[in-house]
Amino acid sequence: DSGVTQTPKHLITATGQRVTLRCSPRSGDLSVYWYQQSLDQGLQFLIQYYNGEERAKGNILERFSAQQFPDLHSELNLSSLELGDSALYFCASSPGAGDSNEQFFGPGTRLTVL
Amino acid sequence: ILNVEQSPQSLHVQEGDSTNFTCSFPSSNFYALHWYRWETAKSPEALFVMTLNGDEKKKGRISATLNTKEGYSYLYIKGSQPEDSATYLCASGAGSYQLTFGKGTKLSVIP
């Protein structure tokens, strides 16, 4: 158990809908990262927050947005969902923001768009 | 955007065999190299983070080396056990607060 929690574990929804994925980092960690794992793709970095502020942005679609709240939990919002958005979404946390920080991954949320 | 390549894509070894796999990454703007172990139905778990050329790290039967000048890292497993079966991911950071992951090497250890 990494100490990172994600909810829900599974989500099934329809095209065009909007969903919110939630992540609580390990106690004391200030950075939260979001990743997407699609079939046959490696882990794709979406976005990073550090202590409430956006620190880095990867290949995140405009239909997706995220935020980190004062209590350091983070939410990833996915809207106008398409079939291709079906994937495993991971959240990870680390104490600091730099690339040399070990990341601790949550159990993931599996999103299925029908 | 970095391009991180891992080889082989998959590997089957007998219990007791030693094995190694490779991670290649762009050597320019290198900042850090991570190795993660990802078991089926679980989440990736950090093994090592290396930053300096020539770094060698060890955890039990697993060790890793880093060559930042030529842009590669090796992961070694000595005396493979069935519980070592997993996908091993490497990820490189270029100091831009984001890691680029390879697609992984899937290791199966046959009892």
Concise summary:
The complex is a heterodimer of chains A (114) and B (111). In chain A, 0% of the residues lie in helices and 51% in strands. Chain A is mainly beta.
Task: Average the pLDDT over all residues of chain B and give the rounded result.
Answer: 94
Low-confidence stretches of chain A: none
Outline the biggest β-sheet of chain A: 7 strands, mixed
Q: Let me know the number of strands of chain B.
A: 11
- Cα-atom radius of gyration of chain A: 13 Å
- Compute the number of helices of chain A: 0
Q: What is the helix fraction of residues of chain A, given as a range? A: under 10%
Question: How would you describe this protein?
Answer:
The complex is a heterodimer of chains A (114) and B (111). Chain A has strands spanning 5-7, 10-13, 19-24, 31-37, 43-50, 53-57, 64-68, 74-78, 87-94, 104-105, 109-113. By secondary structure, chain A is an all-beta fold. In chain A, the strands form two sheets. In chain A, strands 2, 4, 5, 6, 9, 10 and 11 form a seven-stranded mixed beta sheet that branches. A four-stranded antiparallel beta sheet of chain A has the order 1-3-8-7, with no helix packed on it. Chain A is globular and about 35 Å long. The N and C termini of chain A lie far apart (31 Å). By secondary structure, chain B is mainly β. Chain B is 0% helix and 54% strand. Chain B has no helices and eleven strands. In chain B, the strands form two sheets. In chain B, strands 2, 4, 5, 9, 10 and 11 form a six-stranded mixed beta sheet that branches. Chain A binds chain B through residues 2, 33, 35, 41-45, 48, 50, 55-56, 58, 90, 97-108, and chain B through 4, 31-32, 34, 36, 42-46, 49, 51, 89, 91, 93-104.
Output the keywords.
A: 114 residues, mainly beta, 7-stranded mixed β-sheet, globular, B: 111 residues, 6-stranded mixed β-sheet, 5-stranded antiparallel β-sheet, 11 strands
Please specify the SSE layout and strand pairing.
The complex is a heterodimer of chains A (114) and B (111).
Chain A: E1 5-7, E2 10-13, E3 19-24, E4 31-37, E5 43-50, E6 53-57, E7 64-68, E8 74-78, E9 87-94, E10 104-105, E11 109-113
Parallel strand pairs in A: 2-11
Antiparallel strand pairs in A: 1-3, 3-8, 4-5, 4-9, 5-6, 7-8, 9-10, 9-11
Chain B: E1 5-7, E2 10-14, E3 19-24, E4 32-38, E5 45-50, E6 56-59, E7 62-67, E8 72-77, E9 86-93, E10 99-101, E11 105-110
Parallel strand pairs in B: 2-11
Antiparallel strand pairs in B: 1-3, 3-8, 4-5, 4-9, 6-7, 7-8, 9-10, 9-11
